[in-house]
Amino acid sequence: MIILVIFGLVLSLVTTMVSPFGGLLALLAVNAIQPGELYPSLSVVHPERVLALLLLFSMLVRSPHLRFPVLTRYVLAFWAVMLVSVPTSIWISNCLVFVLDFGRTVLYNVMLVSLITTLRRFRLLLLTFVLLMGWFAGSSLWAYAHGEFQVRNSYGVGELERAVGFTSSSNDPNSLGITLVSGLPIVLLFVLHGDWRDRLLGLAVAVMSVWAVLLTGSRTAVMCLVAFFAIWALTRKKAFFYIPAVVLILLLAWTLLPQQYQQRYLSVESRDQDESYTNRIVAWHAGWHMFLDHPVLGVGAGQFGIADGMKYWSGNTSYRMWLQPHSLYVQVIAELGCAGTIAFGLLLFRTFAHGRRLSRRLRMTNVPGYLKGFPSAAAFSLLILMMAGYASHSLYRWTWYFIAGLMAAAEFVAEAEIERAAPVLTEAEEPFAIPEPVEANHALAGGPDYRG
């Protein structure tokens, strides 16, 4: 197996040198699969970093024109706020390292909008995304079936076996569940708007994703899953058909689910007796006090846990816990203050606004269904992340900025497709063409001559 992985890495390097866009697809796959973690002997060469640097070099040589549309500028503005928070952070050097590391996410956004220049590339990017969602779901199900899972104590359930993936990109059950649920809207694009092969692939990935989410034991992810299917069914033109189908699918999944998972999801009614929930409440109170003490720029990007353990822990006084915020909304005000809240809020608002404008623009066109349906799918993904944000600290999750980059790229592609499809009218065919004046020689024509 390691031979195949090495061959894949070598092929990725060659592809990156020949085609920057092919290198982008390879980089997305390598970052998701993490071959250096699957096989520690490969981590010596740092394949992710090598491929990223090679892709950047290839872009500058072969595609030197970088795009910075409005949404990318909002991403850059958010990153600028993170940089400004460094000098006032609770641990300056650690905050600086965190902010510089986030630069990779910003770079991915720039790569997306600069390299996705055609409809074919846009489709290949979506296809790669769907395949990677299939990897996350399929690898976690395979690991679960072979006894590789996380065992955690859960209130009212005891020890719960929770599905996880192989590497750090999917080794947390809550993060894995949210990744799969937020990716479902884009997966369903292939089910609804593809040919039979696309539909088969999308359906297989969707089924695996739903089952993997249920086995993660993540109550937040499951609630987001149910909410997504409910809203999605209600907003369809044939809602009377989709609603019963969604209800039947969810009931079937529930009956097939082992009892310990059913108890886990039903325990949400008594969450005030769950230690994990009570610790979150303590962390939220700490986050509020961080905001009161640092209202403008917060305690620094990525520094919530450090600030909590060093200064703001208000739980059991016999020990200290370095808790994470476990809430997007607590995280943004605590770590980046009002400046970061405004910057992130504007990014979300503009992404939704651009999606709505693009959807209206494509409504009466003949572009493929997956492009026409992408703005709605992206909006659903963002809404899922916002719902999950109630109980997950996802401010720096790659998905936000990935979707913003795809939205900007989709706008470029859509405009190019609309312009390409528009007929080129000749002067005689133009509906509002004004004819050139013609001097009539009435004398020669036998008519009256009024020239005196």
What shape does the CA trace take?
A: globular
Subunit arrangement of the protein = single chain
Helix content: 55-70%
The side-by-side strand order for the widest beta sheet comes to 1-2
What is the residue-mean pLDDT, rounded to a whole number? 84
Main sheet summary: 2 strands, antiparallel
User: What's the total number of strands?
Assistant: 2
What does this structure look like?
- The structure is a single chain.
- With 452 residues, the chain is mainly α.
- The chain has 3 domains: 1-64, no CATH class; 68-115 and 283-419, no CATH class; 150-273, no CATH class.
- It has helices at residues 2-18, 20-33, 35-38, 47-62, 70-84, 92-115, 119-145, 173-193, 196-216, 219-234, 239-256, 259-266, 275-293, 304-312, 328-362, 369-388, 398-421, 442-445, and strands at residues 150-154, 158-162.
- A two-stranded antiparallel sheet has the order 1-2.
- Helix 2 (20-33) packs antiparallel against helix 4 (47-62).
- The chain is globular, with a radius of gyration of 27 Å.
Short synopsis of the structure:
With about 450 residues, the chain is an all-alpha fold. It has helices at about 1-20, 20-35, 35-40, 45-60, 70-85, 90-115, 120-145, 175-195, 195-215, 220-235, 240-255, 260-265, 275-295, 305-310, 330-360, 370-390, 400-420, 440-445, and strands spanning about 150-155, 160. A two-stranded antiparallel ribbon has the order 1-2.
Defining traits:
452 residues, mainly alpha, 3 domains, two-stranded antiparallel ribbon, 2 strands, disordered C terminus
